[in-house]
Write a structure and sequence with these properties.
This protein is mostly helical. The protein contains 6 helices and 2 strands; from the N terminus they run αααααββα. Strands 1-2 form a two-stranded antiparallel sheet.
């Protein structure tokens, strides 16, 4: 069975990067990465969200190795009082479920900000390249 570290290592290899550059980009000490490898510790929730966002994978896969269901947000407000499950049972969410939903919402917000930042950076880079081309043609 793969550990969280094994999945992180797989993502690093697939991205074609070194562990050192991965650590540098995400502000992780190489010592912490070594502790994760040895099973001495695991990444905290915020760092897991950041890693999942960086590699664009689901938290379910990163933490559990499971494929996540596709979730489409409707834009409606979330509620915690009562849920209706596929088996028609109703009941209140457990505190762990509420916490997971709040973390997931924070994760989706983080991903949206990162996507927006990437788009802005790409746009700025294109403008700089156009300016350089214009300078060279002058």
């Amino acid at each position: 069975m793969q550990s969280i570290y094994d999945r992180i290592e797989l993502l690093i290899k697939r991205q074609g990067m070194t562990k050192k550059s991965f650590c540098k980009q995400l502000g992780i000490s190489t010592g912490n990465l070594g502790d994760w490898k040895r099973g001495k510790s695991t990444p905290g929730t915020h760092k897991l969200i950041e890693i999942a966002g960086f590699f664009q994978v689901s938290l379910d896969w990163l933490v559990l190795g499971k494929q996540a269901l596709t979730v489409q947000e409707s834009g409606e407000d979330y509620f915690f009082e009562e849920i209706r499950q596929l088996n028609c049972h109703t009941g209140e969410l457990l505190p762990e479920e509420k916490s997971f939903i709040k973390e997931y919402l924070a994760f989706t917000d983080y991903r949206k900000r990162m996507d927006k930042n990437r788009a802005v950076e790409q746009s700025e880079k294109q403008v700089e390249e156009q300016d350089e081309d214009e300078d060279e043609n002058s």
